[in-house]
Structure formats: structure tokens, C-alpha cells
Design a protein that fits this description.
By secondary structure, the chain is an alpha/beta fold. The protein has one domain: P-loop containing nucleotide triphosphate hydrolases (Rossmann fold), CATH 3.40.50. The chain has eight helices and 13 strands. Strands 5-8-9-3-10-11 form a six-stranded mixed sheet, sandwiched between helices. A three-stranded antiparallel sheet has the order 2-1-4, covered by helices on one side. A hairpin with a 2-residue loop joins strand 10 and strand 11. Helix 3 crosses helix 4. The longest helix is centred in the last third of the chain and has 18 residues. The radius of gyration is 19 Å and the shape is globular. The two termini are 17 Å apart. The structure holds adenosine-5'-triphosphate.
Length: 294
């Protein structure tokens, strides 16, 4: 697509305070993680190290705890058990280093907030410890909107935008602080194929140039298959983790679900057939990973 690249330099404070001496050290480190709501255990014994520049795809059926995992990483949900360090600190303490694209929520149509205002909110107005000039902020906001293909409606109230257009603005907002970790909750939902590619390429570029670690919750592995280093697959209170070739197999998923699940590869795409609990109102009610449109 050749979209503008949006990379902002790290401030000295960023490099110092929370950047580890070892540049390859995990930015997320979870040990013996357990998450339960009452008696219901979503996942247990979760051990997870995510390193700079790594792309972790989180898959699993509705209700398996994918969003909850992101909430744990953000410090908005407490672990039931285990320990977690994000950028070497307890979760929730380094939020400006974390970009978060929440699961899609539409803005009310009457909101007067413009697309550029929403992105502006993602900036804290400071860089290198100094306040940013208004013109600098404006340029940064313009660059971010341009990078996600949203420049044309920068001044449109967000409530008047379509779901896919709103989604692009939210992605620009999540990138505003040049995050070291990007947490994405189904960011491609509502996007047409062209804009899925735009966003996927943007995320890929950020990993390469800025070493941003990406945790990407999705029901659609195919649009990001070329980027994925590891898959974390959550289901039935358990999980499997490894490369796509290790996890996305009939034997691994059948073992995880405790029933026959078939994983087939067609034209470089992965299709999961017979995945239980995948027919609960999600876009892929046939239980197949990676719908036909990808
Ligand atoms: N604060 C909470 N208290 C109790 N139950 C909760 C809470 N938050 C989430 N749940 C439940 O935990 C389960 C996992 O929710 P979560 O949103 O993490 O699933 P998910 O894997 O992201 O699902 P989906 O694919 O549908 O987005 C759901 O059944 C949800 O209703």
C-alpha cells in the first residue's frame, strides 16, 4: 500500500526508566498465570514471555478469555494466581508505553468529537520530557491519520463515521504514543480487505522499525499469518502455545478441545473445521478460522 510510516523517536526517559538493559528481554513476562471468574477458570498455568518485536496471535472461541488476557496485561483485571511483569513493572504502571486497540465499540452518533480529537487524546502532549508545540501535535495527528487511511475524515465527528472508519481512527490513537507494546483486540473487525492490509502492514512496519511487541487477539489468523511468530490458543480452560505450524494442527486442537477438530491448509490459508463453541454470534458461525473473504 505504501502508506506513510509513523515512527516517533523514543525519549531519553523512555530509554532509561523502563527500557531494560537487555534489549531482547521480555516486555511481558507472565508466570503460572491463572484467571478465573468465580468457579469458572478461563485459563491456568499460563507462562508467557513476549519479546520486543514479537508478534503473538491470541486465538480461541468466544468466551475463552482473550479480551480478559489483554485486560490483565493492561492492569485492569487482576490475575487470580501467578505473577506478571509488563516492561519490568507491575501491570498498569507504564500505560503510555502500551497502545491498546479495544474490541470494537461504536461511538454514539451525536458525539461532537472529531477523528483528529480522538487521536489527539492518545498523545499526552509531551515528548522528550518537554511539552509539544501545537503544530508538532497537529503534524503527528495528521501523520497518524494518514498512516491508517483516515486523513480524509480527520475533521468529521467520530459518530458520523462507519464502523470500519471509526476502527481506523482508534488504531491511529493507539499508535499515538509510539508504544513499545501494542495490544490489539480484533482490530481488523469491520475493515474491508484493503484496509485490513493497510493496518496489517502498519503493524508489521512498527515491529520492524520500532521493535514494538504485538499481542493480537483475533478470530482470523489468515490476514496476519505472515507476521505471526507464535500463537497462543485458549480453549476449555486450557491453552497451547507455539508457532502456527505447531499449534494450528488437527492433533493439537483436537487434544485441546477434547474432541475431533480438523485443521486444513488451503492455498496457504488455515481453516479450522469443527471447532466447538464457535457458533455463538461471532462473524464465523461456521466455526471456520479465516472466513472466505480473506
Ligand atoms: N468481570 C467479569 N466478571 C465475570 N465474568 C466475566 C468478566 N469479564 C468477562 N467475563 C466472562 O469471561 C468470559 C471470557 O470473556 P472474554 O471477553 O475474555 O472472552 P473472549 O475470549 O475475548 O471472547 P470473544 O471472542 O467473544 O470476544 C466470558 O464468558 C465473559 O462473560
Amino acid at each position: 500500500m505504501g502508506r506513510a510510516e509513523v515512527v516517533f523517536p523514543l525519549s531519553p526517559a523512555d530509554r532509561g526508566a523502563s527500557r531494560s538493559a537487555d534489549p531482547g528481554a521480555p516486555v511481558i513476562s507472565l508466570r503460572d498465570g491463572v484467571l478465573a471468574y468465580g468457579d469458572r477458570v478461563l485459563w491456568r498455568d499460563l507462562r508467557l514471555d513476549v519479546r520486543p518485536g514479537e508478534f503473538l496471535a491470541v486465538l480461541g472461541p468466544n468466551g475463552s478469555g482473550k479480551t480478559s488476557l489483554l485486560r490483565v496485561l493492561l492492569g485492569r483485571q487482576q490475575l487470580t494466581g501467578g505473577s506478571l511483569a509488563v516492561l519490568g513493572r507491575p501491570p498498569g504502571s507504564g500505560s503510555r508505553h502500551i497502545g491498546y486497540i479495544p474490541q470494537q465499540a461504536f461511538q454514539p452518533t451525536h458525539t461532537l468529537l472529531r477523528a483528529r480529537d480522538l487521536v489527539r487524546l492518545g498523545l499526552d502532549g509531551h515528548c522528550w520530557g518537554l511539552p509539544l508545540a501545537r503544530r508538532t501535535i497537529r503534524h503527528r495527528v495528521d501523520d497518524l491519520l494518514d498512516a491508517v487511511g483516515a486523513a480524509a475524515y480527520a475533521d468529521t465527528p467520530i459518530g458520523r463515521l462507519s464502523g470500519g472508519e471509526q476502527q481506523r481512527v482508534r488504531i491511529a490513537q493507539a499508535l499515538a504514543t509510539d508504544p513499545r507494546i501494542l495490544l490489539c483486540d480484533e482490530p481488523l473487525l469491520s475493515l474491508d480487505l484493503q484496509h485490513q492490509r493497510t493496518i496489517t502492514e502498519l503493524v508489521a512496519e512498527r515491529r520492524r522499525s520500532a521493535g514494538t511487541a504485538v499481542v493480537f487477539v483475533t478470530h482470523e489468523i489468515n490476514p496476519v499469518l505472515g507476521l505471526v511468530d507464535r500463537v497462543l490458543y485458549l480453549a476449555q480452560g486450557g491453552h497451547r502455545m507455539g508457532s502456527p505450524d505447531e499449534v494450528m494442527t488437527s492433533s493439537t486442537l483436537s487434544e485441546l478441545y477434547g474432541t475431533q477438530v480438523d485443521v486444513v491448509r488451503v492455498g496457504g490459508r488455515i481453516v479450522v473445521v469443527g471447532e466447538p463453541n464457535a457458533g455463538t454470534g461471532h462473524p464465523h458461525d461456521d466455526g471456520a478460522e479465516g472466513g472466505e473473504s480473506q
